[in-house]
């Protein structure tokens, strides 16, 4: 298959012409019938919804705003990559730990310091954009050398482990909350393993629904816990403007949150490689654009009160299952998300999810983040017989899990930043200077 390049775009026009194809593998520049496009686009909305909604809740952000800007960000991505890279941009979990640390968020209700977090997310987007421009100018080789799989996996695992105490605390208020949280975990596991067809791809959202219903039965119905209050849900209108928030720029928050850009680069790189492998064509020529699009989408989202965004593995999974890679599906899914963002009723429903249910979801999601490191290491055949790899990973995991904090006067780096920069710097030292000496 041919690789779409800048010259191809000039010959074909900036965007593809999306030739109609109704069976077999549907490539990015092809499309289904409009009816099938709508149904398939809605499927991508469902796939992204669980994580895109849960992430802002864990940080105290408005889920309506987060969903709206996930749609806006996806359209930005669609335009910048010329409609040739299929991807959906949703709330990034990489920001959760640093946002909680920067704002002191208690874990329930709106985050009173959300504007401070937004300033840090803008900082991460700017750093991300600088990296993207360098990649567009010089290629991706230096990124792969700076962040090989051993380092990337270590940082991803450190993020998941750093978040673990937050998840456990959310289900530990009393015995009832603990059992509801564990029941939610069990529902997610059963759906992921035993549910039929498409339902198996929706464990998070079905776990949230199942946990919600259980809580309602035992709390509202049988009086075992604090009843769910539906007052705000009943009062919310079906249509209305979301609650936008502007960022406040504080140096300590920016320095704490900005390093997440490194994780976003690694995520986007992995996703571009995965989609390229699935479609049978290299998309490396679009990597710089993809990184820049994601950085711009993150900045735009943070300027209005949304979370930082990233390309979503959930939607890549849907593509792998359906063999439909048409980029038009993502333009439609983004439009639906923007419309949902303008429904206060939708946001009020999400905000009514009980705390222990969110805690159960967090246990699974944060654990999956940490476990994703194992997948990175296995798929890339990382050699743990190498002392450099082993020590780099060991130090990063301990720094992240223990929230090792470094202070330089008024400047503070939390466990995520320490693990990220520590892994990158330590790996380079162990594989270059000392390696040459021993040789």
Automatic annotation (TrEMBL):
Source taxon at top rank: Bacteria
One CC-aspect GO term: plasma membrane
The organism of origin for this protein: Bradyrhizobium sacchari
NCBIfam families the UniProt entry points to: ncs2 (TIGR00801)
Protein name: Uracil-xanthine permease
Pfam families, sorted: Xan_ur_permease
Record keywords, A-Z: Cell membrane, Membrane, Transmembrane, Transmembrane helix, Transport
TM stretches of this protein: 65-82, 88-107, 114-140, 146-167, 179-198, 204-224, 253-270, 290-312, 324-342, 348-372, 384-402, 408-430
Keyword check for RNA-binding: no
Protein's cellular compartments: Cell membrane
Family as reported in the entry's similarity comment: Belongs to the nucleobase:cation symporter-2 (NCS2) (TC 2.A.40) family.
Topology term for the membrane: Multi-pass membrane protein
GO MF annotations in UniProt: xanthine transmembrane transporter activity
């Amino acid at each position: 298959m041919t690789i779409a390049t800048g010259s191809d775009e000039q010959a074909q026009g900036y965007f593809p012409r999306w030739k109609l194809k109704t069976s077999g593998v549907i490539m990015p520049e092809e499309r289904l019938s409009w009816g099938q496009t709508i149904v398939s686009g809605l499927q991508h909305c469902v796939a992204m919804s669980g994580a895109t909604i849960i992430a802002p809740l864990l940080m105290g952000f408005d889920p309506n705003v987060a969903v709206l800007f996930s749609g806006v960000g996806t359209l930005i991505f669609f335009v910048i990559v010329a409609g040739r890279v299929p991807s959906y941009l949703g709330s990034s979990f990489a920001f959760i730990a640093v946002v909680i640390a920067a704002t002191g968020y208690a874990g329930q209700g709106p985050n009173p310091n959300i504007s401070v977090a937004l300033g840090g997310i803008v900082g991460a987007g700017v750093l991300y954009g600088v990296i993207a421009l360098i990649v567009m100018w010089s290629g991706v080789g230096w990124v792969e050398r700076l962040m090989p799989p051993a380092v990337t996996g270590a940082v991803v695992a450190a993020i998941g482990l750093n978040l673990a105490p937050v998840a456990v605390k959310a289900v530990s208020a009393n015995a009832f909350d603990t059992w509801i949280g564990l029941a939610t975990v069990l529902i997610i596991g059963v759906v992921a393993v035993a549910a039929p067809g498409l339902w198996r791809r929706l464990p998070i959202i079905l776990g949230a629904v199942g946990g919600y219903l259980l809580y309602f039965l035992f709390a509202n119905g049988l009086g075992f816990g604090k009843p769910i209050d539906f007052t705000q849900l009943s009062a919310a209108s079906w249509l209305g403007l979301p609650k936008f928030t502007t960022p406040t720029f504080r140096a300590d928050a920016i320095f704490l949150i900005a390093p997440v850009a490194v994780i976003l680069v690694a995520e986007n790189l992995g996703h571009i490689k995965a989609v390229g492998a699935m479609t049978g064509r290299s998309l490396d020529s679009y990597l710089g654009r993809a990184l820049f699009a994601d950085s711009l989408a993150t900045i735009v989202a943070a300027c209005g009160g949304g979370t930082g965004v990233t390309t979503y593995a959930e939607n890549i999974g849907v593509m792998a299952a359906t063999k439909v890679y048409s980029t038009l599906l993502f333009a439609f899914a983004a439009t639906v998300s923007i419309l949902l963002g303008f429904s206060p009723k939708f946001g009020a429903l999400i905000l009514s999810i009980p705390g222990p249910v969110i805690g159960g979801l967090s246990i699974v999601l944060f654990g999956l983040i940490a476990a994703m490191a194992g997948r990175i290491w296995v798929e890339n055949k990382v050699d743990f017989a190498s002392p450099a790899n082993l020590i780099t990973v060991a130090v990063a995991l301990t720094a992240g899990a223990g929230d090792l904090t470094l202070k330089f006067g008024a400047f503070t780096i939390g466990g995520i930043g320490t693990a990220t920069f520590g892994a990158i710097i330590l790996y380079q030292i162990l594989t270059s200077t000392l390696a040459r000496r021993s040789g």
